[in-house]
Design goal:
The complex is a heterodimer. By secondary structure, chain A is α/β, with parallel strands linked by helices. Helix content of chain A is 27%, strand content 29%. Chain B is 26% helix and 29% strand. Classes of the chains: A alpha/beta, B alpha/beta.
Chain lengths: 258, 322
C-alpha cells in the first residue's frame, strides 16, 4: 500500500505570529518546523502501511527557501521519500494554488492508494486544501477523520461531526484529512534521524510541476485593511488567598446569574 | 448599491434549518437583491423557514443516499452556474460540510476561497470580508478581485438571525448528475454523543476546563459546576486531543464558537485556538495558576490560583445556596 502525506512546515507556533507590512501576508521566512497537525497524518500513514503488511509512505510539502527541516522530521519518523516544492513565485499563494501544487506533487510521485492531510494548518488554517486536492486529483474524500482502517479496497472512517461521529465507507484510492489526536505520533529515533539525512527529497519549482504560480497578485483577493480589534476592558485580577471563590459568587450575583 | 444575486449553502439538523443557515440568510438579505438557498438532500421540511428568513428560491439536490454532500452539492452548483444562473456571492457556514462544498466548488470554478470570516460588506461590485487573526487581536479585511462568483465562509454567530416574514420559498430540483467514484464516500451509521442540559453553543452559561485540571477525573468538577449553574460544560483542545472528553465539547477555532452571558475558564491558559471560540462571551471568569496566562487578558474577573482549591469551594458555596 502506498500512502502520500501532505506536510506543512510552519513557523514555530510558540513564537508570536506577524504579518509582513508590505504584503499583509503571514511572515514565514524564519526556521520552520513540522506542523504538529501533520505529524498525526504521518503516524497514521506509517501504521496503515504496517497493517497492510508493507508498502511505502511518501511526503509532499511546499515551503519557501528550500526549507526541509520539518520534512526531515517526518522522514525520521519513517517516511521513505519526499517532494518539496520551493519557488519564490509561490509566495503568497492562496489555498487553491497550494492545492494545485500539492496535487501535482502527488502525481509526480505516481499517485497513491491513499492521500492523507491534516484538517487545517496551525498557522493559516484556511482548511480547504485537502478537499481541493481531492477535487483536483478526481478522488473521493473524507474530511475530519478520527479513525481510519483499510479493508481491501475500501476505507472505513469514523468522521467527526458537530454532535458525535459518523461511520463512513469510501472506495480507494481516496483522500482523507485527519484530526489532531487521532493517533500518538512517534518520536523519531536516533537511528531514524540519521537515516533521514540520506533519504531522497526531490526539490522542484512550480514550473517543474506544470503549475502556473500566480502568487498573491493573481490569487483573486487583495487585503483591503488591517485593524486592531476593539480591546476588552481590563478586568479585575486577584490572587487566591483561599477565599477567592467568594469573589466569583459575588460577581455572579452582580450580573444576576444567581 | 448591493449585489444582485446571493446563494447561501443551507443545512438542516433534526429536520430544522440550522441557526448558522438563518444567520447567513439574514446577512445575505442585507447585501443582495435576490437570495437563494442550496440544500444537499430533500428541502421540503425546511423550505418554509428558509423562505421566512429571506430565500425566494431553494435549490435541492434531492436524496443523496447517505453520500457526504461536498461532491454532490458542488457539482449541482457548477451545473447551475454553467446553465447561466451565476450568483455574485456564495456564502457558506464555516463547518465541515460548508468547507467541503466550498473547496470542491472553488476547483470547479477556479476561484479563490476566503474562510473564517466574521463580517462581509459590499461597496459597488466589490465584496470585502473580514477575518480575525492572532486570536482575534487583529482584523484583516480582504476584497475579492477578478470575476464573480465569490466564495466565502463565515463563522457561526457572526450575524444575528432575524425573520423577514417571507412566505415559503419555491423549491427547484438541482440534480448533481453522475458523480462516479468521486462521490463514493457514504455515511453508514450516525453516532450522537448524548449530553444532558443545554447545548454548548446555545447555553447562557458555559464552564470549560483545560490542561490545568491535571487529570481526566478532575473534569468532574467542571461538569458539576456547569450543572449547578444550569449551563453547559466545554473544553479546550488540549484535553480533547488527550482524550479526556469528546470533541463535541471543544470550544475554539476548530471546535464550537460560544457567546454565552457567562464563560468560566478553569485551568485554561488561553491559546489563540481557544480564545477565538469564546472571546465574544459577555462576562468572562478565569481561574489559572499562571498569572501571565493570556486568558487573563480577556477576563472580567481573573483568579490567579489553583483550580483544585478554588473550584471545590465554589461548588460547595453554590450548593449551600440551594
Amino acid at each position: 500500500m502506498k500512502v502520500i502525506v501532505c506536510v506543512k512546515q510552519i513557523p514555530d507556533p510558540a513564537l508570536p505570529g506577524e504579518l509582513d507590512a508590505a504584503t499583509n501576508t503571514l511572515k514565514r521566512d524564519g526556521k520552520l518546523i513540522l506542523d504538529e497537525s501533520d505529524s498525526y497524518g504521518v503516524e497514521m500513514a506509517l501504521q496503515l502501511v504496517d497493517a497492510a503488511g508493507g508498502g511505502e509512505v511518501a511526503l509532499v510539502s511546499m515551503a519557501p527557501n528550500n526549507e526541509m527541516s520539518g520534512l526531515r522530521t517526518a522522514l525520521a519518523m519513517g517516511a521513505a521519500e519526499g517532494v518539496l516544492v520551493s519557488d519564490p513565485a509561490l509566495s503568497g499563494s492562496d489555498a487553491l494554488t497550494t492545492a494545485k501544487v500539492l496535487a501535482a506533487a502527488v502525481q509526480r510521485l505516481g499517485g497513491a492508494d491513499l492521500v492523507l492531510a491534516g484538517t487545517e494548518s496551525s498557522d493559516g488554517y484556511t482548511g480547504t486544501v485537502p478537499e481541493q486536492m481531492a477535487e483536483l486529483l478526481g478522488l473521493p474524500s473524507v474530511t475530519f477523520a478520527k479513525k481510519v482502517t483499510v479493508d481491501g479496497a475500501t476505507l472505513k472512517v469514523d468522521r467527526q461531526t458537530e454532535a458525535g461521529y459518523d461511520e463512513v465507507t469510501c472506495p480507494l484510492p481516496a483522500l482523507v484529512s485527519v484530526t489532531a489526536g487521532v493517533v500518538e505520533p512517534r518520536y523519531p529515533s536516533f537511528k531514524g534521524i540519521m537515516a533521514a539525512k540520506s533519504k531522497p527529497v526531490d526539490t522542484v519549482t512550480a514550473a517543474d510541476l506544470g503549475v502556473t504560480a500566480v502568487g498573491w497578485a493573481g490569487s483573486g483577493q487583495a487585503v483591503a485593511s488591517v485593524a486592531q480589534a476593539p480591546a476588552r476592558e481590563a478586568g479585575t485580577i486577584i490572587e487566591d488567598d483561599g477565599e477567592a471563590f467568594g469573589k466569583i459568587v459575588e460577581f455572579l450575583e452582580t450580573i444576576k446569574v444567581i | 448599491m448591493g449585489l444582485n444575486n446571493i446563494w447561501v449553502f443551507a443545512q438542516a439538523a433534526n429536520g430544522s434549518a440550522t441557526s448558522a443557515t438563518l444567520e447567513l440568510l439574514t446577512k445575505a438579505r442585507e447585501l443582495g437583491a435576490t437570495v437563494s438557498a442550496w440544500v444537499g438532500g430533500d428541502a421540503s421540511s425546511i423550505a418554509g423557514t428558509l423562505g421566512e428568513y429571506g430565500a425566494t428560491k431553494v435549490y435541492a439536490t434531492g436524496d443523496l443516499g447517505g453520500a457526504l454532500p461536498g461532491v454532490a452539492v458542488s457539482s449541482a452548483m457548477k451545473a447551475a452556474i454553467d446553465g447561466g444562473d451565476a450568483p455574485d456571492l456564495i456564502m457558506f457556514p464555516q463547518n465541515y460540510e460548508g468547507r467541503d462544498v466550498m473547496a470542491r466548488l472553488s476547483v470547479k470554478l477556479d476561484r479563490t476561497v476566503l474562510t473564517n470570516n466574521i463580517d462581509c460588506s459590499v461597496d459597488g461590485g466589490t465584496v470585502t470580508v473580514t477575518t480575525p487573526v492572532f486570536g482575534g487581536n487583529t482584523l484583516v479585511s480582504t476584497s475579492f478581485s477578478g470575476a464573480a462568483p465569490y466564495l466565502a465562509a463565515f463563522r457561526p454567530k457572526s450575524f444575528a438571525a432575524e425573520s423577514a416574514g417571507g412566505g415559503a420559498a419555491e423549491v427547484v430540483a438541482a440534480p448533481s448528475g453522475d458523480l462516479g467514484s468521486t462521490g463514493g464516500a457514504v455515511v453508514t451509521s450516525v453516532h450522537v454523543e448524548e449530553s444532558t442540559g443545554p447545548k454548548l453553543d446555545e447555553a447562557d452559561i458555559v464552564v470549560s476546563g483545560g490542561r490545568g485540571l491535571g487529570e481526566a477525573e478532575k473534569y468532574a468538577m467542571v461538569s458539576d459546576l456547569a450543572k449547578l449553574l444550569k449551563g453547559a460544560a466545554g473544553a479546550s483542545r488540549a484535553i480533547v486531543d488527550a482524550g479526556w472528553v469528546p470533541y463535541s465539547m471543544q470550544v475554539g477555532q476548530t471546535g464550537k464558537v460560544v457567546k454565552p452571558n457567562v464563560y468560566i475558564a478553569a485551568g485554561i491558559s488561553g491559546a489563540t485556538q481557544h480564545m477565538v471560540g469564546m472571546k465574544g462571551s459577555k462576562n468572562i471568569i478565569a481561574i489559572n495558576k499562571d498569572a501571565e496566562a493570556p486568558i487573563f487578558g480577556v477576563a472580567d474577573l481573573g483568579i490567579v490560583g489553583d483550580v483544585h482549591k478554588v473550584l471545590p469551594k465554589l461548588i460547595d458555596a453554590l450548593r449551600a445556596r440551594g
